[in-house]
Amino acid sequence: MPVDPFHLAFHVRDIAEARAFYGGLLGCSEGRSAETWVDFNFFGHQVVCHLNPTLGPEGKIASHANPVDGHGVPVPHFGVVLTMDRWNSLADRLREQDIEFVIEPYIRFAGQPGEQATMFFLDPSGNALEFKAFKDIETQLFAT
Question: What InterPro entries does the entry give (predicted)?
């Protein structure tokens, strides 16, 4: 299934902090940048962290939660669908780094057509990220 890369720009409170999180922790390579923004290769997609000085050094992005499968899913959020092996490796790396999960890694919709591995956590600015995986992305990604 060929996928066109998406582009997502969002605000962060500190560019150096964003570089450490997206580049260091998540392993995303850096692209173009300036004093107030930085591009990352987010698993084949382009994300751009833009400095929002109104957040301040301790500021966080406001979010809301909607119930999904018994959990409060943060909205808005973004992320990527990985293979199950890559998802497990990332979950292990995040646990080793003591990342505080909004929703711990688990299997959602177990035994149903949309069964998926999922986890949610926040970047330092409070942007919510979801990483998910399916046993068979081709048949399960949009299963109803």
Answer: Glyas_Bleomycin-R_OHBP_Dase, Glyas_Fos-R_dOase_dom, VOC_core
